[in-house]
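User: structure tokens for this one?
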Amino acid sequence: MRIVLTWLANALALVALPYILTGVHVASFGTALVAALILGLVNTLIRPILVILTLPATLLTLGLFIFVINGLLFWFVGSFVKGFTVDGFWTGVFGAIVYSVISWALSSLVRPLERRRP
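Assistant:
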């Protein structure tokens, strides 16, 4: 149940994102559900491989290259999910940052609900 609630929280974060950044467009809540699922899969499967492969650049930039990886993956998902578009690289970087902050805040609301249950 917690996975579904976290997925819904991430979809809500994607729906809220166009109100904060003008370069991110989400057509509907259904599109946000699909995009949140694809983002979760990409971050689970592809991101760790990219982080390992770019470890020298990440160390050289004191970890700031992780923002580039997150932005590229966010932009990448926006390029092939119909109804979810990211206008450019920098929009992807800032979109990934804002998306992670919003989804973290919403996911932190889900965790106390799980603890209250006997």
